[in-house]
Design goal:
By secondary structure, the chain is of the alpha+beta class. The chain is built from 5 helices and 10 strands; from the N terminus they run ββαββαααββαββββ. The strands form 3 sheets. A 6-stranded mixed sheet has the order 6-5-10-9-8-7. A two-stranded antiparallel sheet has the order 1-2. The chain has a two-stranded antiparallel ribbon with strand order 3-4. The longest helix has 23 residues.
Length: about 210
């Protein structure tokens, strides 16, 4: 025998728990279908069928400390001091110092504004070979500005504006301009370039 379809052996507590579970499941379905994400001030974007966990999973897992930021800034400084052959400031062979700012198997590229590749070197030996082909190491100064460093899942992405000046001239003359685009990773305690690409401005010569 049962009363209102409920077996006499079922306790009142079981019925309450069942009702609560059913209500919770219905609420979860509504949340997934009608979750609202506030974008900007006063605007609302309705995302249908998206579970909150999927949004949280897109958040970068790597956070940058103040020490990381300073280390990446120093990495850029060492890169350009070596690129300009300033061995009096950073002891050692400039080419070796420049290649050491990269991971052993990573890539340096120079591309034109239209995407044509001027130089692409992968690995330490190719980096050293390419460095020796730079015709103006001792007479060039590289000035960078607006350095940006942001965390991503691999470590950090970065970039900066670049102006290369020929200091042999009086006054010094601009010989290259462009934007660097970088992927930087942390190996042990040290940050290194995984890839570094110089994208030349449309009217900038490659050499």
């Amino acid at each position: 025998m049962s009363i209102l379809g409920i077996p006499q052996s079922s306790s009142k507590k079981d019925v309450i728990h069942q009702d609560f579970d059913n209500q919770n499941k219905r609420q979860q379905k509504v949340t997934r279908r009608r979750m609202l994400l506030i974008v900007g001030s006063g605007s609302v974007l309705i995302l249908g069928g998206i579970h909150p966990r999927k949004i949280f999973a897109q958040t970068p897992k790597v956070l940058l400390s103040s020490k990381d930021i300073l280390a990446i800034q120093a990495l850029n400084a060492r890169h350009f001091y070596a690129l300009d052959g300033l061995s009096n400031l950073i002891p050692g062979d400039p080419g070796t110092n420049w290649a050491a700012t990269f991971t052993p198997d990573r890539t340096f590229s120079i591309v034109r504004a239209n995407g044509d590749v001027v130089i692409k070197a992968t690995g330490t030996q190719e980096l050293l070979r390419v460095y020796k082909t730079f015709p103006d190491v001792q007479t060039t100064r590289h000035w960078i500005n607006d350095l940006i460093i942001e965390p991503n899942t691999q470590g950090a992405k970065g970039g900066c504006y670049i102006i290369a000046m020929n200091i042999k001239n009086d006054p010094a003359a601009v010989i290259r301009t462009g934007v660097y685009k970088d992927q930087i990773i942390k190996i042990g305690r040290n940050w290194k370039f995984k890839s570094r690409t110089l994208i030349l401005d449309p009217n900038s010569p490659a050499g």
